[in-house]
């Protein structure tokens, strides 16, 4: 025989799907090729549909489970060898065999009992390919050990299906994350956290939304608002229990959002912060103020965000009045030493994956000690010191946050952590520093899940 010869069974690879070794049956009697997959699930926008599926490449090793995704080319009626007809999702991907590579169409179907995970039909064979029906493995053999020998970080990327948990789908941060994910070939859905509901059971669990069970997501980006912290973290815990990678864990969200708990954690890890005192509507405000020094002091509601519920009391009399007001509201609050030398400035450091990826200096409006951009403050890019960098990293680590905004004050005694934010806004810091934080977030998720972009994979080959 001349040309390129295949036996009735051959080893091949589907590199774009992240499958370096698949044992296939070559069947010229079948027109179409089929990949025996499970958990087949379409997703993505109507103009760019995708399909996600799982495969156990080794029939004898059910623990070897690979999740794949690819652009959806078609859905067709296919008749199997036993005469059964079904509609199947069809993808197009490259096949690599014997040093050659070319694109083929593959239908996806659940045939978990089959000895061969792939059927290579005649339409997938190029003109010069011949099949020797009585011969096996005419091309170099591969091994399922390929999956264990290659580090996950080196695998070709599969498209990720991700979701953002937020009640603000139209804000800058949400839109940027969606754009960044789609630019790298992934799909990103935006889910209103408050409309999720959970099915909690002994085995497994589910999250439902708008009357339907949500599919499996590769990753979740929680952006839980302060008003629904408790419910939002419960939803995140549910996804965690289902094995979904969550960029921000439920524990980190809960701890950082509770200002008292957060300061106790910082103190436990010996991380610099303004002296802080706490009480539940105390009658003796004098002693409370004495604990942090003397006026001026900062009084802060435990549930304050974006500078709201934060008051500067410049005298003891003013502090007594504010404390009295808080007591009347039956509100929990902190009293903190006022770092006067900060002059209404703070430093926002964005920490991602154990690195400070961007930082900016925020300055409050004239006469306002608060530097929050939501309160009219301004921001400029800033170069932080080594000590400030280490403090920000330690604070994020103490809170168990892989992605966080750490706010620092520059005091005479070194950097002081003011707050650790589990859902840092992206607009101000991206525009001021020119850093594409949203893109770096998506790249970080890819790294965590052991995937790369198709572009990177092509360069590596």
TrEMBL record:
GO molecular function: ligase activity
EC number(s) reported in the record: 6.3.2.-
Domain ATP-grasp: from-to ranges: 263-446
InterPro entries with a match to the protein in the record: Asp_endopeptidase, ATP-grasp, ATP-grasp_RimK-type, ATP_grasp_subdomain_1, Peptidase_aspartic_dom_sf, Rimk_N, Rp_bS6_RimK/Lys_biosynth_LsyX
Keywords: ATP-binding, Ligase, Magnesium, Manganese, Metal-binding, Nucleotide-binding, Protein biosynthesis, Ribonucleoprotein, Ribosomal protein
Enzyme type, top EC level: ligase
Matches recorded under PANTHER family: RIBOSOMAL PROTEIN BS6--L-GLUTAMATE LIGASE, RIBOSOMAL PROTEIN S6 MODIFICATION PROTEIN
UniProt name for this protein: 30S ribosomal protein S6--L-glutamate ligase
Organism expressing this protein natively: Psychromarinibacter halotolerans
């Amino acid at each position: 025989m001349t040309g390129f010869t295949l036996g009735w069974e051959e080893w091949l690879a589907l590199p774009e799907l992240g499958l370096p070794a698949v044992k296939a049956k070559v069947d010229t009697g079948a027109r179409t090729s089929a990949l025996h997959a499970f958990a087949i699930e379409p997703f993505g926008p109507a103009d760019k549909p995708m399909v996600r599926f799982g495969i156990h490449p080794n029939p004898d090793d059910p623990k070897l489970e690979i999740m794949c995704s690819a652009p959806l080319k078609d859905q067709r009626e296919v008749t199997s060898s036993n005469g059964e007809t079904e509609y199947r999702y069809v993808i197009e991907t490259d096949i690599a065999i014997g040093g050659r590579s070319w694109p083929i169409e593959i239908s996806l179907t659940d045939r978990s009992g089959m000895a061969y995970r792939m059927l290579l039909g005649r339409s997938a064979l190029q003109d010069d390919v011949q099949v020797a029906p009585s011969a096996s493995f005419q091309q170099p053999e591969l091994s399922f050990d390929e999956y264990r020998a290659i580090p996950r970080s080196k695998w070709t990327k599969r498209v990720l299906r991700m979701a953002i948990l937020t009640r603000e789908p139209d804000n800058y941060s949400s839109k940027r994350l969606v754009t960044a994910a789609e630019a790298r070939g992934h799909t990103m859905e935006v889910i209103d956290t408050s409309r999720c509901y959970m099915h909690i059971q002994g085995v497994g669990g589910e999250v439902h939304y708008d009357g339907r069970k949500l599919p499996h997501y590769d990753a979740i980006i929680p952006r839980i608002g302060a008003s629904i912290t408790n419910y939002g973290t419960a939803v995140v815990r549910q996804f965690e229990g289902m094995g979904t990678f969550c960029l921000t864990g439920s524990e980190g969200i809960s701890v950082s959002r509770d200002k008292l708990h957060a300061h106790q954690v910082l103190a436990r890890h010996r991380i610099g912060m303004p002296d802080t005192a706490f009480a539940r509507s105390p009658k003796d405000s004098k002693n409370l103020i004495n604990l942090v020094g003397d006026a001026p002091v900062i009084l802060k509601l435990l549930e304050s965000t974006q500078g709201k519920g934060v008051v500067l009391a410049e005298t003891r009399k003013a502090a007594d009045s504010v404390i009295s007001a808080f007591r009347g509201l039956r509100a929990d609050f902190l009293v903190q030493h006022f770092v006067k030398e900060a002059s209404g400035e703070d430093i926002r450091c964005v920490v991602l994956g154990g690195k400070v990826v961007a930082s900016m200096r925020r300055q409050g409006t004239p006469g306002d000690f608060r530097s929050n951009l939501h309160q009219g403050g301004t921001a400029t890019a800033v170069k932080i010191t080594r000590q400030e960098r280490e403090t920000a990293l330690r604070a994020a680590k103490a809170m168990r946050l892989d992605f966080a905004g750490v706010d620092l004050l520059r005091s005479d005694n070194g950097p002081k952590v003011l707050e650790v934010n589990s859902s840092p806004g992206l607009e101000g810091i991206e525009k001021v520093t020119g850093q594409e934080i949203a893109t770096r977030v998506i790249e970080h998720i890819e790294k965590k899940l052991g995937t790369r972009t198709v572009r990177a994979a092509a360069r590596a080959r």
